[in-house]
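Structure in, sequence out. Go:
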């Protein structure tokens, strides 16, 4: 079973008996604040954000250094009155000892609590309240307003029922469940390698290489490079992907579609002064990648110089890291829903469970459409930027699990970001500065605690029913569910199989379309998935001949055996779905009997098939039949196998209205 690890880091050596810290959840007042959002008093509510790193952060209250009064204070409250045996202060950056503490009693009076003379200036301070005071609704903390030097920051204010060790929850995985990352030495160079994007099947790795001598243009801005997975699980020597994806601008890939045929690009190509787009699509063709085309997101704005994007496996959603007028602070993560080809809705903020007052960046939405990985410097971590994981709880995109720090196996005191996995969640790739002065690529096998939800691979080929040759087609899928919405499409192009990753134990409605062919609609149950799927489409033209497989008759008769009905029912369904099609059913025999007998038998057998179609509801005017006897063999009549192939039933399209 996959589960998060909840680590309680305890400080102080005093005895405690299952103590719980209750964190303040209301702002009552303050002497000043550096701004109304970043560094505001509201940032001191709830659990600590910068633990155990304690670095400078906008996710903490910081008084305005230009507004010095006789005293600096913050006044915080609790929605439910608390019994207070100790007051806990968690400060970031430069901790400062307060001069006094005041508790508000049920009668409205404030009680003065002296600060111990021996209290040390630590990031976590505990002020005992003896005896414990019940029914406390607010706490006011006062500092010396004339203090000089570095500013202090209050990250969180909490209370316990008695003095003791302070348990602070740190959602992480530090118990050895995350495997040791491996530096990709054959991909890393003296230049920065960032933004790895692995194809869903895990066989291609794209990444952004900065300032490399082989990059495009005089300024050597970011270029897209790629490598292929080798048989021994190593990566091939990287290659510059070249034009049209690389130009003189900043070029990088943000996502690859489930079938590997569409790239979400972070650059704008052929931008004019009056037209500004931040991302593009490129499609795989028989001649390589297409010229990128811009994507339009309604109301898009980004006040930050950086941005990153991700795309759901079905292409229905784009996840963005941007700074707009609705951010919780600096860059936040948003989601935008597909409206039509290359048009997406106005970005929607994922909310305060995911987004802090600091920066959330490099989002990656896993193939399950629920698991989101991102980097942030606004949540408890080891320093710099850490990588986190959260799971979507419903279809609103507003409710998420508390972010899980992926632990010290991946995160360090340096900078980690740009996390990506293959569709099955077996192998992850990310970027880190821990190897030296530049940014490098790493990979790590994912343990269950950090994996996305299980998926089933839906892969296969679309074939010409007449010739058996592969054809280019679009395969659309819709989840058959009353409670969950899921739809998307994949393609089979240039002789390549289609590929998608769908929910296990689920039913989907599958529609296959191809130019010049009749479409097919069928159901597919992922619980019964077994390897490659084969779909056959019938060419939409007069004269098309289709052999009906597995049609059998009793010996020397025109009586159909039961095993024939599956194929006949499928063909009847095709005729019902396409009422504009007229056909002629033709019967064929092998060459063992005389001509007249073979001709008569083949006519009677063709008639039996037509009768089956009429009984299935097909208009008789659309049907005709003919017996061909043994005049059109397709194999040698001297072998049992050849005679079996010659003895067949087929239909010819005679008219398409």
């Amino acid at each position: 079973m996959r589960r998060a690890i909840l680590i309680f880091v305890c400080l102080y050596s005093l005895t405690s008996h299952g103590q719980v810290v209750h964190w303040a959840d209301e702002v009552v007042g303050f002497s000043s604040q550096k701004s109304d959002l970043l560094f505001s008093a509201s940032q001191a509510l709830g659990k600590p954000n910068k633990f155990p790193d304690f670095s400078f952060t906008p996710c903490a209250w910081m008084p305005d250094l230009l507004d010095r009064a006789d005293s600096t204070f913050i006044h915080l409250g609790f929605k439910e009155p608390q019994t207070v045996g100790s007051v806990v202060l968690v400060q970031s950056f430069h901790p400062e000892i307060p001069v006094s503490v005041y508790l508000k009693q049920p009668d409205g009076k404030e009680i003065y609590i002296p600060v111990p003379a021996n209290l040390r200036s630590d990031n976590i301070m505990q002020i005992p309240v003896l005896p414990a005071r019940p029914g406390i609704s607010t706490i006011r903390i006062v500092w010396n307003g004339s203090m000089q030097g570095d500013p202090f920051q209050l990250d969180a204010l909490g209370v316990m029922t008695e003095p003791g060790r302070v348990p602070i929850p740190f959602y992480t995985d530090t118990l050895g469940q995350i495997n040791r990352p491996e530096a990709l030495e054959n991909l890393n160079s003296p230049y920065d390698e960032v933004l790895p994007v692995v194809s869903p099947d895990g066989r291609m790795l794209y990444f952004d290489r900065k300032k490399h001598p082989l990059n495009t243009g005089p300024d050597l801005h970011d270029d897209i490079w790629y490598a292929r997975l080798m048989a021994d699980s190593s990566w091939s020597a990287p290659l510059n992907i070249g034009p049209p994806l690389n130009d003189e601008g900043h070029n990088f890939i943000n996502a690859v579609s489930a079938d590997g045929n569409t790239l979400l690009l972070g650059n704008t190509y052929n931008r004019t002064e009056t037209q500004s787009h931040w991302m593009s699509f490129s499609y795989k063709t028989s001649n390589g990648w297409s010229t990128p085309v811009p994507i339009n997101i309604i109301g898009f704005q980004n006040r930050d110089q950086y941005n990153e994007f991700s795309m759901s496996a079905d292409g229905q959603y784009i996840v963005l890291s941007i700074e707009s007028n609705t951010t919780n602070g600096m860059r936040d993560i948003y989601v935008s829903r597909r409206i039509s080809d290359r048009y997406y809705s106005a970005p929607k903020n994922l909310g305060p469970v995911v987004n802090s007052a600091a920066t959330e960046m490099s989002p990656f939405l896993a193939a399950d459409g629920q698991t989101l990985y991102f980097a942030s410097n606004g949540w408890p971590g080891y320093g710099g930027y850490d990588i986190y994981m959260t799971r979507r709880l419903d279809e609103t995109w507003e409710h998420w699990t508390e972010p899980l720090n992926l632990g010290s196996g991946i995160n360090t005191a340096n900078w980690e970001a740009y996390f990506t996995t293959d569709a099955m969640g077996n192998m992850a790739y990310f970027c880190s500065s821990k190897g030296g002065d530049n940014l490098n690529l790493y990979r790590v096998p994912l343990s269950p605690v950090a994996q996305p939800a299980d998926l089933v691979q839906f892969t296969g080929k679309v074939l010409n029913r007449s010739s058996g040759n592969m054809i280019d087609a679009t395969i659309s899928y819709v989840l058959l569910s009353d409670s969950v919405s899921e739809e998307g499409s994949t393609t089979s192009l240039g002789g390549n199989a289609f590929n998608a990753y769908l929910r296990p134990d689920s039913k989907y409605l599958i529609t296959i379309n191809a130019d010049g062919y009749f479409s097919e609609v069928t159901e597919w149950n992922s619980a019964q998935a077994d390897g490659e799927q084969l779909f056959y489409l019938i060419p939409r033209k007069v004269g098309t001949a289709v052999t009906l497989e597995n049609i059998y008759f009793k010996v020397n008769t025109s009586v159909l055996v039961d095993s024939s009905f599956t194929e006949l029912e499928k063909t009847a369904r095709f005729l019902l779905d396409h009422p504009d099609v007229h056909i002629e059913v033709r019967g064929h025999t092998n060459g063992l009997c005389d001509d007249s007998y073979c001709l008569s038998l083949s006519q009677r057998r063709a008639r039996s098939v037509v009768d089956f179609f009429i009984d299935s509801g097909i208009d008789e005017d659309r049907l005709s039949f003919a017996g061909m006897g043994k005049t059109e063999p397709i194999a040698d009549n001297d072998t049992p196998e050849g005679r079996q192939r010659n003895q067949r039933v087929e239909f010819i399209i005679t008219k398409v209205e």
